[in-house]
């Protein structure tokens, strides 16, 4: 199952990064690593793996993709794992209450490949085996990748789910013409961290304006605010512009500013 | 991981049959069963499984696709497992010395689906984990299905290999009605007039905040503000939300309000 002597060195592409969030079974992590490398992808990140890491069960199942496991970046917070990404795609069933692009695997692979070729840093995010991604995590994504599954038996094994994306990506790479990405790279895309800075700034000022009411609706209201801004796939320059907009809109606003520092 | 009470009954198509030849690990058989049912395929055949059958390890990993395992036909000879098939497709790396059609997964899925719809009985054959199919077995196939793998790391895990085909088949079945666009029509898209209302509101408030400076840059700055908001393809609801945002941000802003009326 490992490399035979006559084989060429494996393709090992750094982007897209594939992020497994709270994976439970070491075997699934290993199987995911193997199938990623089967299709030339070599960047694995883990958020809060359940078991101790490194995990010997993962190494056994990786069957030669050990290097990929050794290089896997481990983070304890979702946002740290995608902080440097410029395009975040969440693998999940289609959520009902979020306005985001929904792509099949082939469409997602095409967009992600085009993004990589344009110098972007896309990340594809998979949730844990049983529960899947949380709404808060999906809310941070630019787009959703969903599979054409059997509605009566929709839940894929984690490694198989990664396999479907990895295959679609390998196929897209082999295809002659990749759909053009929509941005002409006038300005580099904003990173997830820059977007978070924008959202935090906006939310802080909106709290001062008592925008979030009633309190129990606040998380939903914040998600609904993020959705269109994520969809716009902002550039760094545009994030700066929008932060300038917030400053201009709040300038001279009296009263509570000093209290809140 | 199993079926939730609200789910519809699973799709369970009898053809194509998927044949695992001399599979070694019960876990791989179970994982293959699960991913077949994930994509609506319900006909599994085993040729000479290494371990005793039924295999409890397979049942654990099948995670609800038990029926598929229970119904699996077990044969001791390859030719018996494909005797009733009218089209046999062998999953293997491309062999050098056989003149057969070689299909990628998507092409294979399309041909197999067309065969099923024409009343044929296709079978897709996967070899054992380590060694793959023997030449004699490949020779019996009508066509070869091969994957666009990393030449330096080509060997897929058996269940992942089945997953790639099952996905390609599910995709072929759905083709034509795959969701192309992202919105579930929760809220209708904003009209041009609604967008203009939003932009006018924003620009008015930004002028009050002296955002547009120097004056000769104003038209460009306004265009740069519109670009991301247009890209986001806002819904009516989102336009309302953003107008609420502008109000909340400007609330209590002192000074120039009265002057400008």
Average pLDDT for all residues of chain A: 88
Q: Estimate the strand proportion of chain A.
A: 5-15%
Overall CATH architecture of the largest domain in chain A: 3-Layer(aba) Sandwich
H/E topology pattern of chain A: EHEHHEHEEHEHEHHHHH
Number of helices of chain A: 11
Please state how the strands of the largest beta sheet of chain A are arranged side by side.
3-2-1-6-4-7-5
Choose one word for the global shape of chain A: globular
Largest interface, chains and sizes: A-B, 88 and 86 residues
- Oligomer state of the chains in this structure: homodimer
Class by alpha and beta content of chain A: alpha/beta
Could you state the CATH homologous superfamily of the largest domain in chain A?
A: SPOUT methyltransferase, trefoil knot domain
How many beta-strand runs of chain A?
Answer: 7
Computed over alpha carbons, the radius of gyration of chain A is 20 Å
| Uncertain residue ranges of chain A | 176-185, 255-261
Major sheet characteristics of chain A: 7 strands, parallel
């Amino acid at each position: 199952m490992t490399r035979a002597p006559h084989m060429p060195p494996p393709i090992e592409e750094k982007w897209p990064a594939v992020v497994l969030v709270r994976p439970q079974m070491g075997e699934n992590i290993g199987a995911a690593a193997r199938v990623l490398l089967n299709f030339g992808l070599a960047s694995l990140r883990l958020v809060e793996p359940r078991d101790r890491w490194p995990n010997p069960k993962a190494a056994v199942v990786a069957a030669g993709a050990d290097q990929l496991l050794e290089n896997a970046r481990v983070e304890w917070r979702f946002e740290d794992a995608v902080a440097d990404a410029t395009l975040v795609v969440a693998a999940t069933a289609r959520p009902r209450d979020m306005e985001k692009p929904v792509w099949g695997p082939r469409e997602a692979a095409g967009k992600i490949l085009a993004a990589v070729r344009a110098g972007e840093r896309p990340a594809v995010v998979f949730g844990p085996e049983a529960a899947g991604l949380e709404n808060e995590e999906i809310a941070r994504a630019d787009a959703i990748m969903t599979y054409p599954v059997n509605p009566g038996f929709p839940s894929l094994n984690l490694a198989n789910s990664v396999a479907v994306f990895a295959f679609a990506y390998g196929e897209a790479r082999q295809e002659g013409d990749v759909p053009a990405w929509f941005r002409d790279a006038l300005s580099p895309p904003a990173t997830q961290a820059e977007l978070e800075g924008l959202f935090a700034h906006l939310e802080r000022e909106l709290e001062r304006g008592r925008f979030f009411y009633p309190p129990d609706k606040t998380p939903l209201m914040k998600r609904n605010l993020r959705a269109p801004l994520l969809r716009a796939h902002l550039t760094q320059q545009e994030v700066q512009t929008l932060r300038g907009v917030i400053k201009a809109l709040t300038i001279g606003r009296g009263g509570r500013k000093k209290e809140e520092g």
